[in-house]
Amino acid sequence: MTIYLIRHAQSKFNAVFDLNRSKDPMIFDAPITELGERQALDVRDQVAQLGIKRIIVSPFTRALQTACLIFGETRPFEVHPEVREQVVHSCDVGRPPHELAGDFSHLEFSHLENHWWYKGENDQNGIPVEPDEVLKQRADAYATTLKSAPSRPTAIVSHGNFIRALSGIKPGNCEIIEYDPKK
User: Which end of the chain is less crowded, N or C, counting CB atoms within 10 A of the terminal residue's CB?
Assistant: First the structure.
């Protein structure tokens, strides 16, 4: 089975944080930027050549927007909270399903818990930072799930830390990684 891991396009958080790594800009569930839109559209043709039959996407806005730009809004997506980003910054704090449904009415969110992102003790910014070992356990469990999934070309639109925990590679924005869960 071929699985393509695609990191989301540049988010507004990425754009600000990359300029000033010392301070969280407090942009919750950050949307993508204009550059991010171009990044997603730039890989659209490349992704179209991969024969993808199944699309799995994280419930974060930046991943949903990236998937919509790459695949269009007419293809069915499976929204899986398991492929979400590790909560480290404000952008990794999600929104309840009813809010996501308001922005992405063509997608199904009713299966999500109201608080589907990591829950834990808050840091000084009020962010419940997810420990690395918790992320690794989640990624390992998802890899096991993928091993038993139907054998068809699949795209997972996700995040840098999750992709790194799953594959050992931390991709750039809109970078595509070929992944074999059986290795």
Answer: C
Tokens in use for 108? 């199904």
Whole-number Cα distances in Å, 179 to 56, 80, 118, 156: 14, 18, 25, 10
- Contact between 5 and 85 (Cβ < 8 Å): no
pTM of the model: 0.95
Tokens 């996407």 label which residue?
57
Neighbours of 136 (CB within 10 A): 14
User: Is a pLDDT exceeding 80 seen at residue 122?
Assistant: yes
| Whole-number pLDDT of residue 18 | 65
Taking Cα atoms as reference points, which of 101, 55, 51 lies closest to residue 75?
55
**Could you give the C-alpha distances from 39 to 9, 35, 72, 148, in angstroms and in order?**
6, 6, 15, 32
- 3 with 179: CB under 8 angstroms? yes
Question: Can you list the domains of the chain with their CATH numbers?
Answer: 3-179 (3.40.50.1240)
Average pLDDT, the chain: 94
